Every structure is written in structure tokens, then in C-alpha cells.
Amino acid sequence: ALKTGIVGLPNVGKSTLFNALVEGSKAESANYPFCTIEPNVGTVPVPDQRLHELSAISKSKSTVSTTIEFVDIAGLVAGASKGEGLGNKFLSHIREVDAIVHVVRCFEDTDVVHVDGSVDPLRDADVIETELALSDMDQIERRLQRLKKGGKGKKGADAGDVEAEKKVLETMYETVEKGTPARKADLSEEDFELVKGLGLLTMKPVIYAGNVAEDDLMDEAASNPHAKALREKAESENARFVLVSAKMEEELVELGGEERQEFLDGFGIKQTGLQTLIQVAYEMLGLRTYFTSGEKETRAWTIVSGMTAPQAAGVIHTDFTKGFIRAETVGYEDFVTSGSQAAAKEKGLLRSEGKEYVVQEGDVILFRFNV
Ligand code: GDP
């Protein structure tokens, strides 16, 4: 499964946010068999309004969200790449994730000690990013040395391939050394492909989560210059930015569904930063959702963008790929306006798709297969 790692300096609110993610998902989804794999790994349902609409239309007995995994990666401090504070161990945890949520403290609170004495999101983000960059430089250098010593490169690579990889690595090194993340290097798709195996940390897509006091949630620009600065940084890097209040999320977990909505309405917000964070992470991982919907159950399923109908069927059960015959498909909007699959069929909106069909975001599918 694809994983999103939560990183940031100590005392910025990572654990508070992670606990709200995990506890909130337990409270919210009675239907989901919740599991914690390790203390710092949480499986979290992806909020999706469409799922509930479909479930209501189909009068389903149960409604099941799809999920993504978050990992709380605590302990990253300045000097981590040189082994400070178990640094390398934390960096290796980051290497295993597919996307990063970088939590940055934007709240003022004299009761919560800041490791560097003051609130300064750009400086803080820079501390973390420097560690990631140093680790990447180290990684690239080691790979380069191996190739220069006459290492063989990848399986089946010839001398030309090795030269190509060296050139890409050198460009990457210069990029990262300048403080630019590797993902922004001026290289082609094929070039990036050549060094994918290195698992460079600054290759991973990033969401900056600005952690603010709850009062700053409504109008961050006016009330919180820290959050504004962080948002501008994210925009300049084409990275995503989400405003959250870890403290408020923690309190919201305690409230039931209705109370919770009232609380949000009071703040004039539709959904919490945490819900947005989950959705943005899901999107950034290149994940897509299709649905199955009937009386028994309406359920959201996760696929990777570009998957064909038999592959998508395999997400439900591997046997479905082998036995795949066809996919009876209605787009989400068409399903909702028609009111049922049968009605969509009458209107000619139900398509019978074969093996080559690439499943689209929001498709509502009934698979036909041999068992
Ligand atoms: P971590 O080290 O990044 O995991 O930080 P924690 O989640 O353990 O939070 C450190 C301290 O900051 C705790 O005492 C939290 O209650 C507090 N904290 C976290 N988020 C907020 C926030 O949004 N506002 C305020 N005032 N305190 C917070």
C-alpha cells in the first residue's frame, strides 16, 4: 500500500495530528475494520461525499470508505543526516514513504517550547529540508562512486546507460546542493526514471501543513503571517499547502457527528483541515476512486491512475482479474441524475466496457466475471 509520512521538527504538532487522524477514523467509520499495524502507522478512511450520496440512492445496508496509510515519523532534528538523535533511522523511514506531509508550526504558544526558541516556519522548514537534501547528496555521491569504480549499473545496462545515469546523478547533485528539491531538477521523465531506485527523499511529493491556532483557521492571511509565509513558499515550489489546527482536530475527535458539524458550521468551514489533508495526500499519490453500489453495500475502491477494468476488478479480489468478462459502468454524475443503475441503463448511460477500458475517476461499476 502507498504510504504518506508525517515529518517536521519536534513539538510542531505531528503526533497531535497523527492521533487525530487515527482516533477520528476509529470514531467515524464503525464499518471499517480498523487496524493499527504499528504504533506509528495508521490506516485512515478517505472522506468522500460521493460515497454517501451513492449509498443513499442505493439504500445500501453498509457504506465502506477506501483508506490510505499515514506514518508518524518523529525525531527528525538538525544534524539527522550526520546521525544526530538517531537521525539515520528516521531518514530511512522517510525513504519508505511515497509522499510527505511536512508539518510546520505556525501557532504561537509560550507553553509549548520551540526547539529553536521562536516561531519561524520558513527557518523550520529549511532545517528539515536541509537534512533531507544532505541525505540525498550522500546517497547520490555513493551511487556515483560505485559507478565510477566500474560498477555495472542496472541489470542489463551497457556502457552508454552507465554514462547516462552518471550525468543524471551529477545534475541531481548540483540541484540538491543548491537547495532545490530533486523533484524540481531540470531533467526529462526518462532521466528521472533512471535514478528512481535511489529513493531520494527530495523526490517525494510534499504537502506543507501549516499548524495554526483554531482562531486562525478562518482568515489566515489577516491573522497569521506565519501561515501566509508558508503558503507562499509552497506556491513557489508548486507544492500543496493545507491549513490545519492540530489542537482543534484533537478536540473534534471527542465530539459526535452532529455536534461536530455544528462546531464546524460555527467556524464557517465545510470540512476540517485534516479531511482536506487526507484528500490532498490521496490525490498526490496518484490514487483514483471507483465505486460499487448496491443494496448490500456501497463501497469506494482505490486504484492507481491508468488502471484497466480487469486490474481495477482485481482490487476487489484477485480472481476477478482472471475471470473478468466486462464492466458495466456509469459515471458518478450520470448515476446520481438517473437515480439507479437500472435507470441509467434505460437512458443509455450505462456502458459495457471490455478489457482495455481505463477506469475513470468516479465510475460506478458492476463487474461481470467467470468464477
Ligand atoms: P510533535 O513533537 O511534532 O509530535 O508535537 P506534538 O504533537 O507532541 O505537540 C507538542 C505540543 O504542542 C503538545 O503539547 C501539543 O498539545 C501542542 N500543540 C500541538 N498542536 C498545537 C496547536 O495547534 N496549538 C497549540 N497551542 N498547541 C499545540
- Shape by Cα distribution: flat
Q: Give the names of the bound compounds.
A: guanosine-5'-diphosphate
Into which percent range does the helicity of residues fall? 40-55%
How many structural domains does the protein architecture include?
Answer: 3
Distance between the termini: 26 Å
Global Rg: 23 Å
Strand content: 15-25%
**CATH superfamily caption of the largest domain:** P-loop containing nucleotide triphosphate hydrolases
CATH class of the largest domain: Alpha Beta
What is the average per-residue confidence, as pLDDT, rounded to a whole number?
Answer: 86
What structural category arises from helix and sheet content? alpha/beta
What characterizes the major β-sheet? 6 strands, mixed
Point out poorly predicted stretches.
29-37
What order do the helices and strands follow?
EHEHEEHEHHHEHHEHHHEEHHEHHEE
